[in-house]
Records
---
Amino acid sequence: MSLIPFDPSEMIAAGKYAPVFSNVPPVTRYNTPVTPRENLRAALGGKMPVWMPRNKDHVTIITRVSPDNYARGLVFDSPEKFGGEDMFGIRWKYIPVAGGSMVEPGNPVLLDANDWEEVIKFPDIASWDWEKDAEEKKPLRDGGRVVAPLIVNGLFERLVSFMDFDNALIALIDEDQKNAIHRLFSRLADMYIAMIYKFKSLYNADMLTFHDDWGSQRAQLFSMDTCREMIIPHLERIIAACHANDMYFELHSCGVCERLVPAMIEAGVDYWWPQNCNDIDMLLEMYGGKMLFGVEPDIPMKPDVSREDATSAARRLVMTYGAKYAKKPVVAIIPPGPDYYMEAIYEESRKLFGNA
């Protein structure tokens, strides 16, 4: 984008973006010289943005058509429906203290991956009322932010839901089960690609947010070789479908996954927000410019954080990552809380980028 000097009038609030759900606070809208959608898409496309993009510059679309989103406890204004059966009929139990769900343990539907064609019944996603859901989400889609529908159970997470955790990890490296896993992942990829076409045609999506946790608190859950052999070929197909539909791909993958970043890049991942248990500075040094990384503030943004502390943290982040932005782009992660930090990221980076 061309150089646009900062104007203090940009900081005048121009309203609110529609909230994702009734119990989720709306995001303040400002007099930005380009829309957040244009700005974030520029960064995702390898161009210099007008300000440092923030994760609140995109809106996550959590559909009501997918039973997964109820089972996982993500349809926030319907807590009475948290848990229950996902799109494959797998039962999940919502854990309030964790704020999420887990498959009811101890009774996996699939013990041997070779049996999946007889055991697993795929949903008929074409029968879901996509049009009604897309119409309901129209206020979210028309606000000028990047539209990012969510697929909450990726390839590995879906395998875990079928087999339980230990059996799934064994199946990925068991020579007698690998071919069956490839057939299963290929069939899952077909379904996810069909969903991508729905997201583009009905929601005009800009990006897919794809959940697939690959890490634990200490290290990745499988080796690079296993990732490349078993997961990446199918993930490549899913990402290629996104790119063919003018959509970017965000991998939401929790845990220590830093050693798997080369595989992410090979698959075509555009954006990953690593948790702070990863060495983010090392990732930017080695892989900056090959995909976007999310970066969090260096202090907790608690609800009672002062404006001074939030602004100082934003300035430090912009000073740390903004000067090298063209070669090592990032997305500033905005934690829940007051708008101070979000505002300061915008103002400080606008001043820096607008005078570069």
---
Amino acid sequence: MAADKVDVVTLRNGDRITCDIKKLDRSVLTISTDPLGTVTVHWGDIATLASPRQFDLQLASGEHYLGALTAAAPGQIDIALDTGGSLSFSMRDIVRLAPIGASMWSRMDGGIDAGFSFTQADLETHWTLNGSATYRSPRYLLSANLSSQVTIREDADSVKRNSLSLNGNRSFGNRWYTTGWTQLQQNQELSLDLRALGGGGIGRDVSHTDHRLFSLYAGLAYTHEQFSGEPSEQSAEAALGTQLDFFTPGHEDFQITNSVISYYALTGRSRFRLELQSTYRHEFYKDFYWSLNGFESLDSSPPQDTKSNDFGVSITLGWKF
């Protein structure tokens, strides 16, 4: 934090900021300045960057380049390669940027949000809590996500829905990556006491630009399930998933994320499962945001007298870091 600020960011309105560039991700550049502390700037507001430090630069094509950033024309970034020579790129083609040797904390993003609702007619109270944390390096992406919904009614038992997932990706050339994930779930609305799952596979970012990410992956998973009043089950499943995210490169700070993963039983009873999570998040003041969240959980062949699907929508307020 006490290091000299040697990076220069020039904005489209002509302002010039001497700072310490932390990272570029999802069209938001994070910088550290002496008078303002750590701030974020939308990628669309930046004319050019310059720094004598070494950076890892990733293009929308999936290619990586290492080198220092040199002064360039507005809308362009020139990189002096550590192997010699230099290259010039349009800023619209750059999707990630991180200084080599950046601290672990500076590579992390996350947020936590909560919501509450109450209806007097049936004395129903609904609580929602969501949390996420992501760590990015030039080759690895690690993430953790927590989602919890609790519904309490005076004339009935409380209903809990809880999910904790951990994911890890290792990127290769041409936007290909390997992935591994594990998840713990509880959904009393579906009589699911516990589902423990672990899986792995391979995927590809079909499209990754300064405002969109579309990714597909496939693999295998092992699942252990315990439904209320039923014997535990174990099964092997084929998994097919997709991630479709939209984020702004301009002035408004919003994100739309959509995650869908489907499972097809390879052993045990014939069945199909689908898990969907969608979120619209809009920052309204500094690092504070409001979020509209939706989920769907579907099981084509649940135990007898058990619901086959559960869905819900919530509005929450949160803080990102």
---
Amino acid sequence: MINNDEKEYLENQFLENNDNIQACIENKLENNKEIIKFFFLCLCFIIVFKPIQLKLKDPSNPICRPYSLGQPELINMYIVTHKDFTNNVIDDPYYKILCDERSQLKNEYKLQIIESNKDNILYPRKYGYCEGSKIYPIWKQYKSGILNTKYVGVCHYRRVFPFKNEMLDLDGIFKDYDVILFNRYDFGRKTIRDHFEEFHLIRTFDEVINIAQEMFPEYAQYAKNFVNKNWGNFCNIFIMKKEDFIKWGDFVYGILLEFDRRHNLNNDQDIRNFVTKEIKETHKNFDINYQSRLEGFLMERIANIFYDKHFTKRYELPTGEI
């Protein structure tokens, strides 16, 4: 039999152990609350902040690459393409690829990709404008201040400046020259207008020259002189100072969009219909598919009016074909 003293001792031990157990449980609950709180904060971080962080790091996001509140980066050098090129030899880290959103290059090519379809009013006219439809969103980003580099360069999927993993001394070149352009093409005894008339729809050429003089009277004399020259820098391949690139876009896109407005050309089918009508009236031997790249042909011509006004000293480079 347990006496009273032993019974009291056991009761005290039980109460003491019970208090210890309860305190231990409360401590564990408190610790669990801290753990739950920690995981909740982590979850909030993942849900709220992580997508923003990933978007900022996304190399396909032109809004965030590159942008500098201080000194701008040296150059964005773009290769614009409307097709998935293969067996290419472009491995230069300076180049960024600008292609269609559905391009397989995003999966197969290691260079940075900038998608060009979003908010691009020229995308419905991408065939008519050729490389001009891809350069347009770049120009818009620079004009709005979203992209900010000291120089801007553009090449094509078939023709690129061969840097060979070593960028040109751009600051050194631009001390003595106004622009870097693809080698000039000499037409011999033919004028630029003669050449265009032989291979393209001359009425469209004459009209954009007139529009250039109407919209930009300060370019009028350069436009008049341009049509009688026998050489030019074509293909829209260049490296320009950022400020000149913005002015270049104001000029060429201002003229071409006005041409489109006057003829109600809102998409590639409109351009094709317009070209077909012109061919049937004046140039029945012309190929409709080829001539449907109308704005692209006009763009590389009128760009020379801009060059003639702004660039007295041109540093000309050949391109390597891929």
---
Amino acid sequence: MTESCYLNQLPFHFITDAELDTLLCTDAWNCVSDNDTFREFLCDSRNCDAVRNLNFNYMTEDQFNSTFGSNIDIELGLFHVNIRSLNSNCVRLYQYLQLLAVHFDVIVLSEIWTTNINFYVNSLPHYSFYYDIPLYSKVGGVGIFVSNDVKHEEIVEYKLASSACNLIENVWLEITKNHKKYVIGGIYRHPNQQIDNFKSSLEAVLNKISTRRYPCLIAGDINIDLVKCDSNRKTMEYVDTLLLNNFVPTIVMPTRITPRSATLIDHIYYYEGIKPYEFLKIVSGNFFCDLSDHLPNYTLLINTTAGGKATRPLIRIFSENNKEKFCSILQSASWETVYNQNDTNVAYNNFIKILTDAYEQSFTVTRLSRRRLKDKPWITKALKKAVELKINCIKNG
């Protein structure tokens, strides 16, 4: 591999020397590190204990891995970034995610754009992709990659309508992990729109969700600068709407940094549900990363109960019924998309998709039962029968 190939993997390789010098100058970073306006506003004006106790940091991937890479029980992990064209930055996104020690359950992408969007449905291994793109422009859109290790389905009842004066794309999912349900929302709100229109439509959805018992996480590039919450009345009213519906912003410091400004326009909101899990701790932050001109964000729900990580692993059950179901799905599948293709690569991809879909439907991921967890691998069926026989003999004298 040539030297230039190695250089392409270095952070900030794709920006000019002048841009790097500007980005790393002392004044620019001081603008970020000293800009705690929004957190102070929430804590002082709204007495928001959830934000006061929030563990928020800017992190490199090495700092993140050393903090969360081991001995941390992550109940749910969400990653968000304004990707500015999935077609252009898919490979770089995948490479960056590979650097992180945490396997995120949900990856929300803003500004996925419309270019070749269908080609990226299977771009992240072991994830399913849901997306919403603009109808009359290639710019914008939002997508959610959700891990196949959790159960998931799209829900449309929370869908926000898009119009000329309220131009937005959004996706809503219901996922189940560790027998707990969560509502996940991904939103991209186009810039230069009226805040009132968006606030009114979002408030109706937040009100519906806040009456349910399930926790909710909403992420996206909202293009409302929360740093201005104490100086802009519309922004303040928008934050009030979030808090009145029990949604707490978890990203509290700037996410888009230029030589002349530092704005907090990429948001993640968390609603803990009617019956919150007291053992959960919220950890969030921004990554120092040049995937795009926005910093990626993360929010982790950390399990703080004694005993460390959950010991019941996720498994697939290969019972006879599930095997029969697998065979039945394959027998009834339509293979025309494989045999009628002249391109062998397309035919192979269609073949693999049919097999993968049948496999996922037949052998769904489930949590190992507490009873089976107690099983020891050396205890065979014959030994179990012998133990039962001995117990029965003792009982019967």
